[in-house]
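Possible regression after last week's pipeline update?

I re-ran a chain I had predicted before the update to compare outputs. Posting the input and the new output here so someone can diff against the archived version. Not blocking, just want to make sure nothing changed silently.
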Amino acid sequence: MENRAVICTHHKAGTVWMASTFKAVAEALGISCIGIPARLPDGPVPFPVGIVRDIHSQWFAKGRYEPGDRFLHVIRDPRDIVISSMHYHRTSGEKWLHRPDELFGGQTYQQALNSLPDDKERLIFEMNHASGKTINEMCSWPYGRGDCFETKYETLLNNGDEEFGKAARHLGLRGKEIDFAVSAFLKNSLADGARHKITSGIHIRSGAAEQWRTVYDRELKQAFTDRFPGALSLLGYEPFSVDSTLPPDQR
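New output (post-update):
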């Protein structure tokens, strides 16, 4: 592998999954694998040949890529991101969740979230805050770049070995390198809701796709649509429709 492979993810859209996978790949190939802070500093940021992970659209906005860089970008159904984020943010030990904020009357993000009376209110809170930011980041991504392999979290769940093999080839891996990458990907797979533990506890509550179908009632669908008009179509997800898994008064 002679080029940099840049792994681009979004919060609650397979970041830990991709990080675990590419860390294993890098160790096996004897190359570097580094994470990038959420906010890139100003000025030149030199990175070695190898795997750079956790990049968002600011990477392009700030012109930090180099000729020959190859990208993998993973998105997830934004409706499921809201669900996954809400549950994660209620208990996570991430520092930003525990900083008092004037926006929440001096409460921390986690305190404000947990003070709400039910999950419906908490989901709407997420749409208004952290999850909304993530969804807007996905929508503002510069799609259509020839150097970027675009895929979905759901595709990786359902057709992972074939899809990830294509991604690995695009990133510059060859021969047995691809075979190992696919093996590492499957070992770390979130299929069937597998859970991965990190130092602060269980990071992933459920890896299942389309959780929104049994969670979003009419009010939540409207709340989402009002806040993110056109997002589902832009990102390539089916729009809301009558859902037979919900009671008639909630469809």
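Follow-up from reviewer: compared with the archived run. The chain has eleven helices and seven strands. Marking as no regression found.
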